[in-house]
Amino acid sequence: MRGLNATQADDLRQAMHTAERRSGLRFGVFVGEPVGGRRHFAERLHAALGEEADDAVVVFVDPTGRALEIVTGEHARRQLSDGACRMTAMSMATAFSVGDLVGGLLYGIAALGEQATARR
C-alpha cells in the first residue's frame, strides 16, 4: 500500500477485514506501478496467494498510470460476477478521477464485500 499514510493503510486493512469476515473471501489491495502489463501483473499478484487464490479478490491500482484491475479467483467469481466488478470499478474510477484514492478503495472493497455476501 505504497503512497498511503499509516491511517489510510489501517483504514484499508479494516475494510478488507470486514469484507473478508462478511463474505468469506480474501481481499488484497496493491497500489503502485506494475512490472510489465497491468492485467498480467494483477493476475500474478493474485496467483501469488497460492492455495488462497481461488477464494481471493485482488484490487490493483496504478494511480500514475491511471489503471485499475480487479482479479477474482474461481470460487470468488461465483460470488462476484464480472458485471458486479465492472460496476464497482467504474465507481472507484470516478472517485480516483477527483483525487480520492483512499475513498475509492474503501468504497470498492466495501461494495465488493457486500455483493459477495449477498450471493453467498
Automatic annotation (TrEMBL):
Pfam families: DUF5130. InterPro entries: DUF5130. This is TLP18.3, Psb32 and MOLO-1 founding protein of phosphatase.
